[in-house]
Design a protein that fits this description.
The termini are far apart. The protein has one domain. Helix 1 runs antiparallel to helix 2 and helix 4 packs across helix 6. The relative contact order is 0.14. The protein is mainly alpha-helical. Helix content is about 50%, strand content about 0%.
Length: about 160
């Protein structure tokens, strides 16, 4: 005797690759599956890289793959990333975004640039894309961002 189970309709979730060029999304997923970093770091990087793909699809529709990037586009991506706001270039109506529209912390900007450096460096080293620029030099964190991250000294009383 088979028990009939009620049919449960799940709320339709947005596809995480909506608005991302297909080749970009494919290489992001391939990087995610291949990289040996912790799953938490890979997942954070993967979602950010998809956001970069959405930005790319809107502002540079002819560039669909990491293989098409140049040093000039990398410099533009650094500039855009350092002006990023909470919720920018995410999927439609993201429920997990806090403080939508607020500027991000300087350390977050630096982390995003680090994600781009690692992504492009890995793809180049694994020979998935040609070496057209040096990601370590092209995605360097600007000094203005580093200055905001720098030491935050505090006054220590004499008796300590």
């Amino acid at each position: 005797m088979e028990i009939e189970r009620p049919f449960i309709v799940k709320a339709e979730l947005p596809n995480i690759t909506d608005g991302v060029p297909a080749e970009w999304a494919h290489l992001c997923r391939r990087w995610f599956d291949t990289a040996t970093y912790s799953e938490r770091n890979r997942r954070k990087s993967y979602y950010f890289l998809l956001n970069i793909g959405r930005w790319l699809g809107q502002t540079h529709p002819k560039i669909t793959s990491p293989a098409d990037w140049t040093r000039e586009l990398a410099a533009e991506a650094v500039s855009v990333t350092c002006r990023w706001r909470s919720g920018d270039w995410c999927t439609e109506a993201p429920a997990h975004i806090k403080n939508k529209g607020q500027a991000l912390a300087a350390s977050t900007y630096a982390g995003h640039l680090s994600m781009l450096r690692v992504f492009f460096r890995d793809l180049q080293e694994w020979e998935m894309i040609p070496r057209r620029f040096d990601p370590v030099r092209s995605f360097i964190t600007p000094k203005s961002v580093l200055a905001k991250i720098g030491p935050n000294p505090r006054i220590i009383s004499d008796d300590v």
